[in-house]
Write a structure and sequence with these properties.
Keywords: Sigma factor, Transcription, Transcription regulation. The chain is mainly alpha-helical and 210 residues long. It is built from 9 helices and 2 strands, in the order ααααααααββα. Helix content is 57%, strand content 4%.
Amino acid sequence: MTAPAPPPPEARFTALFESTHRALLAYAVRRVAEPEDAADVVAESFLVAWRRIDDVPAGADARPWMFGVARRVLANARRGDRRRLALADRLRAELAVAVETPPEPDRDVERALARLSDDDQELLRLVAWEELGREEIAVALGVSRTAVRVRLHRARRRLAEALAALAVPDDDVAAVPATVDDRPAVKRSGPDGQVMGRWARAHHGIEEAR
């Protein structure tokens, strides 16, 4: 029995766009100075995807693959090699409804994060902002899952050290000692003693990548 023919490239590209463009727009808008520039990044990413439609992984791997493309486009844009595309107009029109305003970040965590290298920041944000698991991060960064585990462990440790360096007497923010597996926890005590802060709340934030 003859296997069914795969969908044509146009149908595959349309499905890829519909399933990933909002997540990519949110990813880009968090990393550019002006929200309008995010549309250009996403448009460029989908141009790459169209040119390489046969290389796009099937199923769930398509999403982290697109994050990897967007990451490389951002790197090129930062070097001044930015191209304007007609698709950007449509994405700009959707920007207001497609991207929710992110919660106010914990200022101490943001200050500590700014002390880390670009690679550490990107890795921790992929966990806390984009909620990617280790295997998805490995696809997005083009490295092995083991490399992600090692880099994430080191990035967490450096973040904990940066938080500890920022701590001052009587401050209500402290770096909690690492757990058994060396994962730092960020604690902000409220009146009821509960842990607060977006980085510590969202799916354990930086503390755990699935």
